[in-house]
Write a structure and sequence with these properties.
Layout lengths: L5 H34 L5 H49 L15 H35 L3 E5 L5 E4 L1 H7 L9 H4 L3 H12 L4 E5 L8 E7 L5 E7 L1 H37 L5 H32 L8 E4 H19 L2 E4 L6 E4 L1 H16 L7 E8 L3 E8 L6 H4 L11 H6 L6 H11 L3 E6 L5 E8 L3 H17 L1
Parallel strand pairs: 7-9
Antiparallel strand pairs: 1-2, 1-5, 3-4, 4-5, 6-8, 9-10, 10-12, 11-12
Helix pairs in contact: 1-2, 7-8, 8-13, 9-10, 10-13
Length: 484
Amino acid sequence: MPRKTPMRKLFIKVLGLFVLLLALYALAMEAVFSGLTRAASGGTPQWLGREAFWSGLIVLGILLCLMLPVVAWAASRIAARHKRVAAFARRLADGDMNARLELSGEDELPGMEAALNQAAEQLAQSFAEVESRQQELAAMLDSMQEAVVAITPDGLVRWFNAGLQRISGGQIHIGRPLIHSVRDPELLACVRGALEQREVRIGRASTLAPGRIFEIGAAPLPSGGALAVLHDVTRIEAAERSRREFIANVSHELRTPLTSIQGYVETLIEGPQPKPEIRNEFLEIILKNATRMNRLTEDLLALASLESPDNQLTRRPMRASAVVQDAMDALGGMVVDSGVELELAGAPEALVLADPDAMNQVFGNLIENALKYARESRRIRVGARLLQSEVEFFVQDFGPGIASEHLDRIFERFYRVDKARSRESGGTGLGLAIVKHIVLAHGGRIWAESELGAGATFHFALPLAPPALGVHDRDKSKQADESF
């Protein structure tokens, strides 16, 4: 049997009410006519018709007066429920997903109200899922290192992530034209091409943030507008520039001794038999340049090893005084041969985590660098002092000093203050760079201080060893000393 729809149910009820009204009217008219017939057995037909008409009209009026309140009550109830449904729909349209209808009555409307409530619940779940996904997407885009911005077809900012907010310094706002927030011509050109030509545009921006370079990718969106992504390539550019400079410097440093070796060898081969003293002089020059190339190769290998992620230092707790003393013992012979006095300026007994071999290399490079400028003063001071959470080591010479403009770059690879003097002394330009890498690998810091005419002092600081390791190391050292 087919299911009755709400409209059919309402129609049947109204029809039943109408049939009931007709039945009551018929019964009332039958009673009226029976009474009139018995009361007016001798009356005329005109009188009988008139009485029947007015009697029927009075009965109909009475029935209508009785039925109208019932109909009005039913109509007002239905109208009120329809108003609730309309108010419910308006709340949903305004975004109130918690709106629900109260079920009332046992007619056909509660079924519709229940269906509307179910639809509202499903709609609320759908909106909650969409909002959750939007929040996840926003969080993902905000966590990106790249800056992202979406543009409407009219060139207005539709959306942007935290990366672009940082780059723009808070000047970008949703709903404003992109050109009012970002003035980089390359970015604007890429976005304009994606909006107008509907094709992917690639560019490079260098004026968005001071000292930073960005690769730009702008693509049209299927729904209109465009999306621009900015990738920071500042470090990549710096690394590439450093690589090119490094290769150029290595090539230059190798070409100079190779050219010298080649020239003297060709002279020895092609010239007449040279005198022994000239030949020995040439061979000494060749040996000097070959030694310089060998030192350069060793320093390059050492630097490559330090920069390798596989490089591991064997750090252990050491007394700062022992670190300084080991370096002086290892390098004392070299200093004595040069005629320079190596002074110990004192060192604390505090413990630091250090690799002994690496520390010897640090002091060796610093003292060797000081020897180049201590020929006149004949004096180098080495020592250390305790700070709050670290130990500061230093190597001081009393030579001509270093100008202030060189102090920030003195630890760069192949950077020389006096290039002619450094090459004459056999320096490779990598010693201080190696020192810097070793100190940073220990978690320390390094810097230089100098005044022209008053010498230069190279400082590096290492963190103090944890107390537990210090106590353990102190006990082990004591046991080792007693065993000897």
